[in-house]
Amino acid sequence: MTEGVTEELKDKILKYLGTVSKAKNRDVARALEIDKAIVDKGIAELAKEDKIEYIYLGTSYIQLKQK
Question: In Å, how far are 15, 34, 57, 59, 65 from 10, measured between CA atoms?
Fold first, then answer.
């Protein structure tokens, strides 16, 4: 596991994404009040685990993986 990234952090990211249609990494970091660099690592891990996906609408966003 990447340093600083816990299962608890990943759960918080997933829970937050469940409340919005899409978000930027910095929005997630602000909402969770956690350093953006750590949130970026957690988001990257969740993407590798196929739990979230990146979408590009002129700029990149993340969202929960569509089922």
Answer: 9, 12, 24, 23, 14
The CATH number of the structural domain formed by 7-64 is: 1.10.10.10
The DSSP line for 37-56 is HHHHHHHHHHHHTTSEEEEE
pTM, rounded to two decimals:
0.89
pLDDT digits (tens, 9 = 90+) for 17-34: 999 999 999 999 999 999
CA distance 7 to 54: 20
